[in-house]
Design goal:
Radius of gyration of chain B: 18 Å
Strand order of the largest sheet of chain B: 1-2
Largest sheet of chain B: 2 strands, antiparallel
Order of helices and strands of chain A: EHEHEEHHHHHHHHH
Helix content of chain A: 55-70%
Distance between the termini of chain B: 21 Å
Shape of chain A: globular
Order of helices and strands of chain B: HEEHHHHHHHH
Structural class of chain B: mainly alpha
Largest interface: A-B, 24 and 28 residues
Strand content of chain B: under 5%
Number of strands of chain B: 2
Strand order of the largest sheet of chain A: 2-1-3-4
Oligomer: heterodimer
Chain lengths: 256, 224
């Protein structure tokens, strides 16, 4: 009897099992590879401030960061990437992954954490309501500061010094990235072959919050609405992972 | 690779002359363009491009691989140079501060180190160990090696921007003296990448070094 693996992550909303990109990546990959994991949301616990999310706990050891967690799952023989490596151009998934990190992540961080309207009306209330008192004052602010400094340090090189100048650049790069992904996906259900792989999990993790969240102001979301195949891709994967996750607390198990 | 005449000039204040603060930059007529991306676009606007023969799918693939190289190799190079204490103390700081006199050299070197460490912190590389960084570089090289296969260039017969970018990074890693040879060894274990670097060095740099000095190349390091 295999010991259960427990995943600590942010809880779900807006029709998603989790609102957090990294947690979504791990949840999607676990479903693709057939691993059974218990989801333990860190909402309303002190882990919202102290914990690194997502975190996989198995037999006493903890692993953080999606890439490490996916490696660990592969070592435990939960591998969704067989078909990927059989394809002649399968190695490009590294490149696409790098593209997501470089081009799409800054714009997503900006949309959710730096854009004043979205932050005030959606992100901060959500995270504040999911953190215990008095952390609800600290947690959203800390994430917003991290996001801003990350964008400025990686993209805000001279002559672009302020966030407004960087905005234009990161949004145009993100739109290009989404177009490239849409082009690459075409009419298929998944990016490589007929079964989903780790890259599908990563793209899902990045794009799904943008697709599902009701953002008051988002040029990036409007751009995504023009790319039907990416939206179809997210919905399809959501249906695929529509299972009952057992929750570690008093919740009744939910399906999405 | 585009056969454009270029005069290379080394200046210690190059970073400050550049419009974006980054080297390299080209000075053409009364225009100054810095960094690979803008320079490629600039030459394309003037009618010289290496990737005209690629279709849309290949061009997207090329962009993805270029992003991979930038994301992995460049970050790993910065990490090893500035976040690893031994390398920073013995090699990077002395080298960076060599054109200046005391105390400016100390200040600038520490400032650069602080800047790079801050950036590593922001993207989450600060917690990585040297072993993990070497592992990441190895994975990146494996992806490149598999894509290159037995072809002369990444997109078959003609060199493209990707070839130039990969050559630049790999050549630098192979010819820069560091505290340990592990990084160079990792790359040498992929024989087709090593052959690729040698081939490009031979085709594009050997001739000009042997020939006229009017080209302006100084005798630099070599893989041979």
């Amino acid at each position: 009897m295999a010991a259960t693996m427990e995943l600590r992550c942010w809880g779900g909303d807006w029709g998603l099992p989790s609102v957090h990109t990294e947690s979504l990546i791990v949840l999607a990959y676990a479903k693709f590879s057939g691993a059974t994991i218990t989801v333990a949301p860190i909402d309303w616990t002190w882990k919202t401030l102290t914990g690194t999310v997502p975190e996989l706990v198995y037999q006493g050891s903890t692993i953080t960061e999606p890439a490490q967690i996916l490696n660990f799952l592969r070592k435990q023989r939960f591998n969704a990437d067989y078909e990927l490596y059989l394809q002649p151009c399968g190695q490009i998934h590294h490149g696409l992954h790098a593209l997501l990190e470089e081009k799409l992540r800054p714009a997503l961080l900006h949309t959710f954490w730096v854009d004043a309207e979205n932050y005030a009306n959606l992100t901060r209330p959500w995270f504040a309501s999911r953190s215990p008192f008095p952390l609800n004052f600290l947690v959203p602010g800390r994430h917003a500061n991290t996001a801003l400094s990350r964008i400025l340090l990686t993209k805000g090189e001279s002559p672009l010094h302020t966030i407004t100048e960087v905005e234009g650049k990161i949004y145009s790069e993100a739109k290009e990235c989404l177009n490239l992904l849409s082009h690459r996906l075409g009419m298929a259900y998944y990016f490589f072959g007929n079964t989903p792989c780790s890259l599908d999990a990563f793209v899902f993790g990045f794009v799904a919050p943008l697709h599902k969240a009701s953002l008051p102001s988002s040029p990036l979301q409007s751009h995504l609405r023009q790319l039907d195949n990416l939206q179809r891709f997210c919905d399809h994967i959501l249906n695929t992972i529509r299972v009952r996750y057992t929750f570690g607390s008093d919740y009744s198990s939910e399906s999405f | 690779m585009c056969n454009l005449p270029v005069h290379v000039s080394c200046r210690s204040n190059a970073e400050y002359m550049s419009p974006s603060g980054k080297v390299p930059f080209v000075h053409v007529g009364n225009q100054v363009v810095s960094e690979l991306g803008p320079i490629v676009q600039f030459t394309k606007a003037k009618g010289h491009s290496l990737s005209d023969g690629l279709d849309d799918v290949q061009r997207a693939e090329m962009k993805a691989y270029m992003e991979l190289v930038n994301n992995m190799l460049l970050t790993a190079e910065l990490y090893i140079q500035w976040c690893d204490d031994t390398t920073a103390t013995e090699i990077s700081r002395p080298r960076y501060s060599s054109p200046y006199s005391w105390p400016l050299n100390q200040i600038l070197a520490y400032q650069k180190q602080w800047e790079v460490r801050r950036k590593m912190n922001a993207i989450g590389w600060a917690g990585k160990s040297l072993e993990q960084v070497y592992e990441d570089v190895s994975q990146c090289c494996q992806a490149l090696s598999q894509r290159l296969g037995t072809q002369p260039y990444f997109f078959n017969k003609q060199p493209t921007e990707l070839d130039a970018l990969v050559f630049g990074h790999l050549f630098t890693i192979l010819t820069t003296r560091l505290t340990s040879d592990e990084l160079g060894e990792k790359i040498k274990s992929y024989s087709n990448l090593l052959a690729f670097c040698r081939r490009i060095e031979q085709s594009y740099f050997e001739d000009s070094q042997a020939g006229s000095s009017s080209r302006g190349y100084s005798k630099g390091p070599s893989l041979f």
